[in-house]
Amino acid sequence: MSRADEQSPTARPGSPGEVAPGGGGSAVDDTGREAGPAPRPAGGGWRAVFGYWFAVYKRIWRSTVISSFLAPLLYLAGMGYGLGALIDSGDRTAVPGVPYVAFVATGLVAAQAMMTASAETTYNVFGAIKWLHTYDAMLVTPLRVVDLVRGHLVYVLMRLTLVAGVFVGVALALRAMDGPLALAAVPAAVLGGLAFATPIYAFSATLDSEQGFNVLQRFIIMPLFLFSGTFFPLAQLPVALQVFGWVSPLTHTVALTRALGLGPDSALWIEPWRFAVHVAYLVLWAGVGYLLAVRALRRRMVV
Fold this sequence. Notes:
Layout: H1 3-7, E1 27-28, E2 34-35, H2 45-60, H3 65-87, H4 100-120, H5 123-131, H6 134-140, H7 145-173, H8 185-204, H9 211-226, H10 239-247, H11 249-262, H12 272-301
Antiparallel strand pairs: 1-2
């Protein structure tokens, strides 16, 4: 039975909304003539989906202040300034040539992008499928599955840009970042967040229970947060953990945000070819994750 059949099970012959014989999905208009199928959006259906998520965010933005802004600033104050004051003494620093507060700040902006991407593509996606049936309602309209994914990811990009922009602005004001290239750390962090958002979206679209998110947070997100170079150089870890760290998109994001946040005169600046490798790796994660997200949601929502 088509969606049109389900929408108008009692439609009288010749009445508006009657499904034409043959199951083609066409309707009969007020004059009794067969109307064509409802038009599909011409590539812009994602804007309507983005508008929905943006409208939701405008209602709940206050609840995101602590997780998106205050928590990373507390990490910066505690780890950067508090612990940094203990391990940096005189001319000696924990990381040669770099104050520890600057080392932590340039890593935290990348880590916060990962956290934000995870938050926006776990329960929001699962709830739209399982609890609120938001996606069901959207798919009754001319919107397509790909519109749902694109619109949601554009909203995630907005959230990532907002979070990373505020963090970099505060870090610049506190002198934890320096140099004209520091603002370029924002798009680097956004790209890193997108490299997490798309595969997590695909994962969320396959779950039947929210318990899977506990596994994701405890065994993937938190270990990556700790062992991807955010708080100490990756080279200080055992070889097995170094391999784990370099597989992580967060390590590559941290390398970009740290180089850009500290500038070309810092000891952690990287060569142009390394920039290209890090960017390509993150684009690969984001692109493959996007394809998997569309495939997973289509399998889940389209019978």
